[in-house]
Automatic annotation (TrEMBL), chains A, B:
Keywords: Cytoplasm, Methyltransferase, S-adenosyl-L-methionine, Transferase
Location of the PRMT5 arginine-N-methyltransferase domain: 303-472
Name under which the protein is recorded: Protein arginine N-methyltransferase
Any Pfam family hit: PRMT5
Residues that coordinate or bind S-adenosyl-L-methionine: Y331, K340, Y341, E399, D427, M428
Amino acid sequence: MPLGERGGWDKSESRYCGLETDFNDDMPNLLSFNLSTAGFDFLLATLMDPTYRPSLMESSSNGACVLPFAGSDLVLSPSQWSSHVVGKISSWIDLDSEDEILRMDSETTLKQEIAWATHLSLQACLLPSPKGASCANYARCVNQILQGLNSMQLWLRIPLEKTDDDSVDSDQTIDSWELWNSFRHLCEHHSQLSVALNVLSSLPSANSLGRWFGEPVRAALINTDSFLTNARGYPCLSRRHQKLITGFFNHSIQIVISGKSVHSLPGASLDSAANHTDAQRHPLRPYLDYVAYLYQRMDPLPEQERFEHGYRDFLQSPLQPLMDNLEAQTYETFEKDCVKYIQYQRAISKALLDRVPDEEASSLTTVLMVVGAGRGPLVRASLQAAEETGRKLKVYAVEKNPNAVVTLHSLVKLESWENIVTIVSCDMRHWDAPEKADILVSELLGSFGDNELSPECLDGAQRFLKQDGISIPSSYTSFIQPVTASKLYNDVKSHKDLVHFETAYVVKLHSVAKLAPSQPVFTFTHPNFSTKKSNQRYKRLRFEIPSDTGSAIVHGFAGYFDAILYKDVHLGIEPSTATPNMFSWFAIFFPLRTPVCIRPGSSIEVHFWRCCGSSKVWYEWCVASPCQSPIHNSNGRSYWVGL
Amino acid sequence: MPLGERGGWDKSESRYCGLETDFNDDMPNLLSFNLSTAGFDFLLATLMDPTYRPSLMESSSNGACVLPFAGSDLVLSPSQWSSHVVGKISSWIDLDSEDEILRMDSETTLKQEIAWATHLSLQACLLPSPKGASCANYARCVNQILQGLNSMQLWLRIPLEKTDDDSVDSDQTIDSWELWNSFRHLCEHHSQLSVALNVLSSLPSANSLGRWFGEPVRAALINTDSFLTNARGYPCLSRRHQKLITGFFNHSIQIVISGKSVHSLPGASLDSAANHTDAQRHPLRPYLDYVAYLYQRMDPLPEQERFEHGYRDFLQSPLQPLMDNLEAQTYETFEKDCVKYIQYQRAISKALLDRVPDEEASSLTTVLMVVGAGRGPLVRASLQAAEETGRKLKVYAVEKNPNAVVTLHSLVKLESWENIVTIVSCDMRHWDAPEKADILVSELLGSFGDNELSPECLDGAQRFLKQDGISIPSSYTSFIQPVTASKLYNDVKSHKDLVHFETAYVVKLHSVAKLAPSQPVFTFTHPNFSTKKSNQRYKRLRFEIPSDTGSAIVHGFAGYFDAILYKDVHLGIEPSTATPNMFSWFAIFFPLRTPVCIRPGSSIEVHFWRCCGSSKVWYEWCVASPCQSPIHNSNGRSYWVGL
């Protein structure tokens, strides 16, 4: 039974709560008590008798012995097995032990249990946490299993904070993220290997926790002893724990209650008989209730987030509006972004007021050209700005897409703008304008600012801007920041070619850990009448990863832009200054062919180039420190924007 | 004119000597003076007037200006250009300068000069050394050039020892190898990017120098001021320099004399008129003469090295003698290896003496079985051992290859061994022997010891060995060591697939830098009558790189074996204990998918597994430190040996 409804939430976004149980060979009863009676949604159930050791079996039994699994496959229906049981692999296994017998027993048992779980069509198995700092043999064995696995997921249990009990030097706390990082590197970032985080009573720093949201975390096991007790004696969680659980809900991470009840439940016995059901007698029911309460009290998703929900972490190729003509559907979508046009209208109003003093408002007509007018939203914003400021306007609407021009014509007719608006069906780079403009309005920005070739287009268009004319936008800057993004990395990798690793993608970033604040990359200012101007750019950036993050892995760079439309009116998606409620742009993602590991408190140096050829513009990028990556996308061989 | 002949050397192995010259627009005279007159073989000649700067050219000249190259393409014949001139790119270029104009000028000039060199069909161009510690923009530009280059090589000039002149902190000497390593990483190990080492008067440590022999060094520029003066006033080199130059000769690295004459050449003017030719008047001729002298006095290549010369650094797939039957040619080659059979004969003799006391020599017949008898060399060695020791022998020669059995039969007939030798045409794992053996002789070893499945074969064969019987070999151990091997890495990479990166190759290692002494990996002992024995193995090794090596790159692991035939008689290819003059085995090479960089004085941890399935045996390997590699060859998906 899901954790109840959350306002404005899609049914498909229901969240469930599981329970970790000990070995019990009466599976039907185990399910009945914990699910039907207590209300948990699934069990994390031990599959094999924990006393089993292959080396202790009679080798002479010659096929007569039966492996001590918890019941046969027939004790539950196939759908019960697959929907309600996640298999828990024997926790005693230790493939990196010094003891060779234990190592051999562990490998045999692990393979037998996975084979059994596969036979039962379980959706996932929980692998016990690696015992020591080294996990190569464990990873080798799991990697072998992954090569031939059906669709089952393997969840590697990782304690959120791990202290090395064996270590004499008490400073030597192992960063458990590093354990995961080693393991998944050894297993080549296999997409069926994911994490089950074990949440304990103490939590690492927020930066350290943040890394996990870029990782494939599928479940969070909350130990009962990480709960506090509220005034009425019921379990509750610290504010930091609550925030973490909310993060898990937001990232579709399953919650699992683990451990024995540590609360005496005063309420249960005092409740009135009417409410006193079996369910409430289950000792762990109060923990489930509390998790459900946390879920239900979450704020509903805002409209924009709901709209963008389906795009989360989904890689899209950036538009090529210069080479390709946009489709009606695309115009339709972008024109709905009121916030953007309000910002344009504010910028145009300010420019009109600056350009035309009040006393000349009725005599002076400002020539405004919208270059890349599309189906007309910026024409409308311009006319509204004129009306708002009481300035007289003459508008040229220049658009290269003949299909959009059709719509533009009917808009002008419909709105009776014929005397004010002249439609020009032409590429702005080639138009022979009949007069010069006071204001040049354009919206040619991509997620990374210049990546839809706004600089090249406006270089062409500024021919018909007066020397003292205004360009809206007057400048724009791209930004990047290093991110952990396992999901994106695996999606890129799944294409198994170089091209996809050297391509930038438009993507609604969600399961991503941002490792350092973003920094500016390239800036373009318009108009730029310098004779020596070039649109080539080269930038070298160094990002310091906060030392309390611990080690981190960089799968690539998230890119954004911020545009100054006019004076203090800006527009952008750079996280710290992003224009609220604007949905026209997702971020851009530049992948790295090989993820880069960063040591605690250390930095990553990255170089970005914007290169221009005769028929295309492209980016190249590389990491120079802590290790050198190859230069990505040399000569734009994999990804480029056509002129 | 080559540097003369070296004893026992192939003509194709002639060595040449070049000369670095300053800019001179009279190319014909430059060639005539330095090559025809003085005797150098080629010039490293500046292509462009060093005062040229693109930004200083009149931008209004509108195509009227000519780039200031050293003469037109017509001043030399095409073959003169391509055989006698290596282009030297303007040494002032600095693509990583803070000065943007200089950066832009540098990029423009570099591209113009490379285009000119391509036009002239030069075989190579020398790129100036990166100016500072950072070289990303330089590498980006060179990488762009490499993407579209014809067959021309680019030699990056790297000083053998570089001190950072700009550095305030005098301890901060830059390891110039790191500069090269950064550059080539950024350029993805491109096969046309190589090194021209600039040898100066001081040399780094032997370990530091050793790294370069695993790199694609094409030329060594010897500065005249690195020469000393001998008693007669002539230039000569220190012993360490001499040794280095000899190393260059052995690795086909071209020598280039660089700089002005710093010796007053007393001999030149005192020489008798008869010898007083123009050639001797060239101020740099004594340097050339000295280099030629060093070449000519080198020892001739030993017979075995000459035989193996053609196999140097050439990747071969290991034999699969168990799955495939060897061909006659293969038997022919291996049977020529006298040294190997002498060792076997010594081992068998010792075993016979131990087994049969002198007093029973005439009464006791020892049963000896040669398993994998091939065409009979071990049968012969056994009979010779019997003769040598005066022991009586009964020999069974077991061979699975029916084609080899044909030869075996005729050998036995030819040598009249019919009464002593019984031929058994059967796989040793399935043979039902009529009696048990005292001595089991086999030679089933691969370059990595167990990699041709000797353990599995002998497990099958030991059924018919007496409980107190002797196996020859009695044990064997594999060894590995980390190596720099650019050539091998690039050859593996050229296949552009995963399979080749997860395959072990048999290879005559030559252009390889061995970074640490080899360490034992897996040992097998025979006979092994334990009931719990397994041929699976797991080994974790840590190699310390000597701290005076500096940083290093590991492209993979060189593998060897050593076998104890009997007591103190061993046989093997592990470098420190290798059996001299034995040529049956080259080393084995396990590549890494991503080369691993090791910081100075640091170590590399590697894990190797020998895994056994029902129909195959395979290795898996990974690097666990300083960073995690993926596990290579999981489940033997890329490389395995069939049972």
